[in-house]
Write a structure and sequence with these properties.
Elements lengths: L20 E13 L10 E11 H5 L7 E7 L3 H4 L16 H11 L4 E8 L7 H11 L2 H5 L3 E7 L7 E5 L1 H19 L31 H6 L4 H17 L4 E5 L3 E8 L2 E11 L4 E4 L22 H13 L1
Parallel strand pairs: 3-4, 4-5
Antiparallel strand pairs: 1-2, 2-3, 5-6, 7-8, 8-9, 9-10
Length: 321
């Protein structure tokens, strides 16, 4: 989500900048829907697939999140936007993905709503129809302020996939910032809360498995790199250190970091040349390695920003002097 990039800062005038966001599945809508209740007799709140909010909002889930996300596959365009212009008190409203988002945006003051709709198989080709209906049916307020944002992926047989964004203003922002947004995602840190260790009958605590520790092989480390651009650059950097300068450089692979150190008498020493994470971020750079190795020194320091020829030259100077 473009407004949640750059270190998870929210760039809306309606919301303050925050450092920590909570992601919660099945976040209840503020408005009620007759069809969302069992038996259809009594209106009840619908549910968003995902709600994103600050920790204080997540704990008080009766208020709307900063943003909600709905995902769908093969859903008829006419169903998704049906009743989108109904009044706040209207009954028997269809709780479709885009209806729920639009109504909470309009009547519950939720800042942003996102939908991802996929059409493939026998539903392929319906993306254009949905895009047209969005422009015809969505209230102008949500279009002008880009508060409702929809990504449509249409996969027609024997054709390249089509990815379109609604509204046009958001599409322009996405295309201009896509690379920056993708890079920012790789440097976010997620904290997962798990259950505390259970007490066994013997009185001993059961220890959770230690994840992210210990040595791994190069292949295991490489498999953890999810971004293709980072993986390609990693392989090229390692080739320089491992194949061309193997007598002077030693490599150490951890569960989440890779280190290039200087060898002393054939043994890998503690003098570090470069350490980077599986996401491509520079964790530590040796004192004898300067910012000259980067293509653009003013940009965020990542391995994808390293000029390979400059790196090779700098590495040779370090290990041969």
């Amino acid at each position: 989500m473009t407004n949640l990039g750059d270190g998870a800062h929210l760039d809306s005038d309606q919301t303050p900048k925050v450092q920590t966001l909570a992601v919660q599945t099945e976040w209840h809508t503020q408005l009620k829907y007759l069809k969302s209740s069992k038996g259809g007799a009594k209106p009840s709140k619908g549910r968003f697939d995902i709600g994103i909010a600050t920790l204080d909002r997540a704990q008080a889930s009766q208020i709307p999140p900063f943003a909600a996300l709905e995902c769908g596959r093969g859903k008829p365009p006419e169903t998704l936007v049906k009743d989108i212009n109904a009044s706040e008190t209207a009954s028997n409203i269809n709780p479709s993905d885009i209806n729920k988002l639009a109504r909470d945006l309009l009547f519950a003051k939720m800042p942003f709503g996102y939908a991802i709709e996929v059409y493939d198989g026998r539903h392929a080709g319906q993306g254009e129809a949905l895009l047209k209906r969005l422009y015809d049916e969505v209230p102008a307020e949500l279009i002008e302020k880009t508060r409702l944002r929809v990504a449509i992926l249409d996969c027609k047989p024997s054709e390249a996939p089509s990815l379109k964004f609604f509204p046009e203003k958001w599409a322009t922002q996405v295309c201009a910032r896509f690379r920056q947004v993708v890079d920012s995602i790789h440097f976010l840190q997620c904290k997962i809360h798990t259950r505390p260790p259970q007490i066994l009958r013997t009185g001993a605590k059961s220890e959770a498995p230690r994840i992210g520790r210990g040595k791994v092989t190069r292949r295991e480390f490489e498999n953890q790199i999810s971004c293709g651009n980072v993986r390609d650059h990693f392989c090229k950097l390692i080739s320089i250190a491992e194949e061309e300068l193997s007598n002077w450089c030693g490599l150490s692979y951890g569960a989440s970091n890779c280190s290039i150190n200087v060898k002393v008498d054939g043994i890998v020493g503690r003098q570090r040349i470069l350490k980077f994470s599986s996401h491509g971020g520079i964790v530590e750079m040796g004192e004898r390695l300067s910012a000259d190795i980067f293509v653009k020194a003013e940009q965020q320091q990542t391995i994808t920003n390293i000029d390979l020829d400059r790196f090779r030259t700098a590495l040779k100077q370090i290990v041969t002097t």
